Amino acid sequence: MSDEIHLPFEMHTPLEKIWVSLQPHLLSRGYRLRPRYDPEWVPSWTKIPGVYATECEDSLRNIGALLDAIRISDGTKVVMKQIDTSTNELPLAMKLSTPELRSDPRNNAVPVLDVILIPGNDELALMVMPFLIDFAVLPFRRVGEVVEMVEQFLNCLEFLHEHYITHMDFCWFNLMVDASRMVPRGCHFCRAFDRDGHTIGDFEWIDRWAVRPVKYYLIDFELSRELDPTGNHRFAGKWGQDRTVPEMSETVSADTFKVDVYQLGNVIKKLTDRYTGLKILKSLAKDMAHPDPLKRLTAEQAVKIFQCRKLKWTARTMEQRVWKRTTPFIDRFMVKYRNFNTII
Fold first, then answer.
1. Closest by alpha carbon to 219, among 171, 256, 269, 182?
2. Which of 155, 165, 226, 305 suits a disulfide with 106, CB 3.0-4.6 Å?
């Protein structure tokens, strides 16, 4: 990976070369990749004397199995993911995108917009999804914004478990947000705080509170399982990003439903640690991330407790400001009194 990062900007990484080879097929299917992935690409900085590669959008390389694209029919930005067809990820994601399951408002699994088969390659397929950003990359500003997010993911977890689906990686970097109304001018796939990939200082965004409701999504079902309602719900092995799960083991099985609850509870706990003003969520996070799985809440219990407490929270409570503990006073002042939205 480090060798790929230090390649000259005009050279594609091995992973990028896969996308370059797929570009003509994707174009025929109605999707346009960025100029960098055109087989006939000539680096733009080589055409203009005195321009550095870092000043040009097409120097931004992608590292990983995800890449953004434009759906030509309507100009919509989407994201494509290379999926190993030997896993359950694609069938499970497609099941969660069926009209029947999508009709449940609790279903916040990322929708599958399209599936693209690769000619001559039965091992990979491309799953097309909406263009989303990490749920917390833009700071929360009010209690109600966090409450809205927590409620959606709690409901989603309950929904999955009702259908005997365990995510097994219900963690920070798999929680996303549709920021299309928060960032109406859009942002670049490789640079969240950059509108077009090369214009510095041209990023603008709007508080979630001003454009609510905001929709959140759960992604990455690579480790997920659909369980037999009458069978075993305990597994050992891979558990995703959160390495603090107490019962995590490569050899000793654990209740996968309780692991999901712990993972989401730990996300909420991290938010209460990183932000001021989120005391109302602390006890829920603690009970969801209890070190003893037998004393840990189920998804259904967590939802019921949350909804019961939500009834007692006033509109004034929801409107109260929250701040990252690292946000300087001057930034708080500018946000609160000058309507200037920093990204801190």
1. 171
2. 155
Residues of 284-319 as b/e, b for ≥16 C-beta within 10 angstroms? bbebbbbeebeebbbbeebbebbeeeeeeeeeeebe
> What whole-number distance in Å separates Cα of residue 90 and Cα of residue 127?
7
pLDDT band at 222 (very low <50, low <70, confident <90, very high): very high
The residues, any chain, with a CB within 8 Å of residue 282's CB and separated by 6 or more, are: 269, 272
Burial class (CB in 10 A: 0-12, 13-18, 19+), 48: exposed
DSSP 92: H
134 and 192 Cβ atoms separated by less than 8 Å: yes
Is the pTM for the entire model greater than 0.90?
A: yes
Stretch among 182-186, 259-263, 314-318 having the lowest mean pLDDT: 182-186
